[in-house]
Write a structure and sequence with these properties.
By secondary structure, the chain is an alpha+beta fold. The chain is built from 6 helices and 16 strands. The relative contact order is 0.13. The structure holds S-adenosylmethionine.
């Protein structure tokens, strides 16, 4: 179906679709409608999610950069009821891996050039990367399928945030999808650089154990994974230079560290809670 509609209306439709992500009960009823845009004269598509990702990953820095680095992170994909998706799911459980096609709903804008997390060779064209900052913010993750329970898929290796709208699911088919000799494009040339070695002082170890035991936050793994990528401030790393040394923020905690060559020494962990927050919690 091709409709001629004013651009303002299109924006409204897209906006209402995006804002309805948090309200799972409101469904998007304009499935697959193709609209003509007046600004470029090209067709526009309005998509409808089939479901949403549910997991404990609330912010972008908490998620792995790719499923392979997610180290088994579990998630559920809850498909919407009343849409015959139980039939659409039949036979999917016979596949060990599936493709999840999703919408980067936390990305309001795109950038033609992006700085990949480990890049030492500068910005890259977004189409040459797996960055979320795309003109159509569509993500593609291959994840392990543990089991299907009704309309819920239990998956491992999620790099998707909680609430991510899912657009489609497909089996990962080894004979056609796996290309072991594919290489790593520009990553082979200069990126990623060798990982930094991250060491922890005894005080930091004690403090991290305390934090993990009380909050469940896997702070050591988070610090190690982030600092292994490099100690420099970066859009994806909450790193600051201090008067003495440097500091990485992980949620409300602040890890102080020093750098020598490719060795990073984490000295201690401090609280980054504001006094007003502490007063609220006490
Ligand atoms: C580099 S992207 C790769 C995603 C997918 N594997 C791909 O290649 O298209 C993964 C990152 O996207 C971010 N992310 C995940 N879900 C998102 C969402 N719903 N909206 C915006 N950013 C998201 C997280 O920061 C995560 O680390």
């Amino acid at each position: 179906m091709l409709l001629k509609l004013p651009v303002g209306y299109l924006i409204l439709v897209m906006w209402s679709a995006l804002t309805s992500v948090s309200s799972r009960t409101r469904s998007w009823r304009i499935l697959g409608v193709m609209l003509s845009s007046e600004d470029h004269g090209e067709p526009r598509l309005v998509l409808e999610p089939i479901g949403f990702v549910r997991n404990a990953l609330a912010t972008k820095v908490e998620a792995a950069r790719q499923p392979q680095a997610a180290d088994g992170t579990p998630a559920q994909i809850e498909l919407l009821p009343g849409r015959h998706f139980e039939h659409a799911l039949e036979d999917l459980a016979s596949w060990k891996w599936i493709w999840v096609i999703f919408w980067f709903h936390h990305n309001p804008a795109w950038r033609p050039k992006v700085l990949p997390p480990r890049s030492v060779t500068g910005r890259k064209g977004v189409f040459a990367t797996r960055s979320p900052h795309r003109p159509n913010p569509i993500g593609l993750s291959v994840v392990r399928l543990e089991r299907v329970d009704g309309l819920t898929l239990h998956i491992l290796d999620s790099d998707m945030l909680d609430g991510t709208p899912v657009l489609d699911l497909k089996p990962y088919v080894a004979y056609t999808d796996a290309h072991p000799d594919a290489g790593n494009g520009w990553l082979d040339d200069a990126d990623p650089v060798r990982a930094y070695d991250v060491h922890f002082d005894a005080l930091a170890v004690e403090q991290m154990q305390w934090i993990e035991a009380r909050t469940g936050l896997p702070i050591e793994a988070r610090i190690r994974a982030t600092l292994a990528l490099g100690p420099e401030p970066h859009p994806y790393r909450r790193i600051r230079r201090l008067k003495e040394g440097m500091q990485l923020a992980v949620k409300e905690w602040r890890a102080r560290f020093s750098v020598e060559g490719r060795e990073i020494r984490v000295i201690d962990i401090a609280s980054g809670f504001r006094l007003s927050e502490l007063a609220m919690r006490s």
